[in-house]
Design a protein that fits this description.
Elements lengths: L1 H5 L13 E3 L5 E3 L32 H5 L10 H17 L3 E4 L4 H9 L20 H10 L10 H7 L11 H41 L2 H8 L7 E13 L2 H6 L3 H19 L5 E6 L2 E6 L8 H17 L14 E15 L5 E5 L1 H11 L6 E3 L1 H10 L14
Parallel strand pairs: 7-9
Antiparallel strand pairs: 1-2, 4-6, 4-7, 5-6, 7-8
Helix pairs in contact: 3-5, 10-11, 11-13
Pfam family, one: Guanylate_cyc
Organism: Phlebotomus papatasi (Sandfly)
Enzyme class: lyase
Length: 402
């Protein structure tokens, strides 16, 4: 600015933060000066009332220049540049707009500047945010914003007043640049560490969500980008259950009530199955399907895991309350069957871990031909539970199953 004022140009005329540019060597360069004849009329604002918010640059303009009329009529003065510098200095130290938070109301600010209620105390940005700043900055701002242009200092005086800001800095510009780079690098490291922690938290959430949808060994393979091959299992135990009278209940309930009811029920079920070595395959409407013995084999323990889990679920159902029908009891029908299956991941969008084979169909038939609040098991499952011991059975007799 000292160079500009001593040059034939004599003044800048539109100094503001958007015209202060920092190059790759950390040097501030000033733009948008000169060429007054070329820019003649480009910034004219004949009617202040029709001015839009994009004309915030007028907030940097000295009061006497604003009152002189259009920007094209009076391009600028040296003392006008000093006032503009004061606004820029205020922005640097407050990290806010040219008039702080009030600067959002551009027209209101300009009216207060143009027509001060008290000429001895003209409207200026609030200095309260600078209470903890350097005294020299506050003093300099007060002088730069003087209402009378002749009371404002020139840039050589401003440089002398702001000299305390350079305390501790080295005279060599390269040393200063390296010190700033080091400070910037330290800030960047702290920022990177913070962002890395946030990324790790998000990664944990994503992994937890993936593990809710797929078994851990399968999820680990997918995370590594490997294709999950389908696998055959000689013996697993499959659980099916549904709600007796669910169709009739749905017909007499609103969709939101049905959703809330199923959410309450399955939240209860999900909290229980977490205590057993099982994997929840899927839920379709009121049907609930669970399997044990895959993808990690557990010998014949899968039958005991499913049987114990079924007893636990049946016990929980007896105390379950339907929110929109508190007087009604829930009737759960359970079917269990043990046998061989084939399992694999199907699909790319929302991949599902699916089971295939007659064992799945038979387990479903065990459930559909069962009785309310009973656990209907097949002969194969009973044989495994007999070997494990600890379970009581009641024979139902021969029934026809499709």
């Amino acid at each position: 600015m000292i160079y500009l004022h001593e040059s034939p140009l004599r003044y800048h005329g539109s100094l503001c933060t958007s015209n202060c540019l920092i190059d790759s060597r950390w040097v501030v360069k000033i733009s948008d000066f000169g060429l007054q004849a070329f820019k003649q009329g480009s910034d004219d604002f004949p009617d202040l009332r029709n001015m839009s918010s994009k004309h915030e640059k007028l907030l940097y303009r000295a009061p006497e220049l604003l009152r002189a009329g259009s920007v094209g009529g009076v391009s600028g003065t040296c003392k006008g540049d000093v006032y503009s510098f004061g606004i820029v200095l205020y922005e640097i130290h407050t990290r806010q707009g040219p008039y702080g938070e009030e600067g959002k109301q551009v027209l209101e600010c300009l009216r207060k500047i143009l027509n001060p209620m008290d000429p001895t105390n003209p409207y200026r940005p609030c200095l309260q945010p600078l209470e903890s700043s350097f005294d020299c900055v506050r003093e300099c701002l007060g002088e730069c914003w003087a209402e009378r242009p002749e009371d404002r200092p020139d840039f050589k005086m401003i440089r002398a007043k702001l000299r305390p800001l350079r305390k501790g800095m080295r005279p060599n510009i390269f040393d200063n640049m390296m010190a700033m780079m080091e400070k910037y690098a330290n800030n960047l490291e702290a920022l990177v560490d913070e962002r890395t922690d946030q990324l790790q938290e998000e990664k944990k959430k994503t992994e937890a969500l993936l593990l809710e949808m797929l078994p851990r060994p399968v999820a680990e393979q997918l995370k590594k980008g490997n294709k999950v091959e389908a696998e055959s299992y000689d013996m697993v135990t499959i659980y099916f259950s549904d709600i007796v009278g669910f169709t009739a209940m749905s017909a007499e309930s609103t969709p939101l009530q049905v959703v809330d009811f199923l959410n309450d029920l399955y939240t209860c079920f999900d909290s229980i199955i977490g205590h057993y070595d099982v994997y929840k395959v899927e839920t379709i409407g009121d049907a609930y399907m669970v399997v044990s013995g895959l993808p990690i084999r557990n010998g014949i323990l899968h039958a005991a895991e499913i049987a114990s889990m079924s007893l636990h679920l049946l016990d929980a159902v007896s105390e379950f309350k339907i929110r929109h029908r508190p007087k009604e009891s829930l009737l759960l029908r359970i079917g269990i069957h043990s046998g061989p299956v084939c399992a694999g991941v199907v699909g790319l969008k929302m991949p599902r871990y699916c089971l295939f084979g007659d064992t799945v169909n038979t387990a479903s038939r065990m459930e559909s031909t069962g009785m309310p609040l009973k656990i209907h098991i097949s002969g194969q499952c009973k044989q495994l539970l007999d070997r494990l011991g600890g379970y009581n059975f009641q024979e139902r007799g021969v029934i026809s199953i499709k």
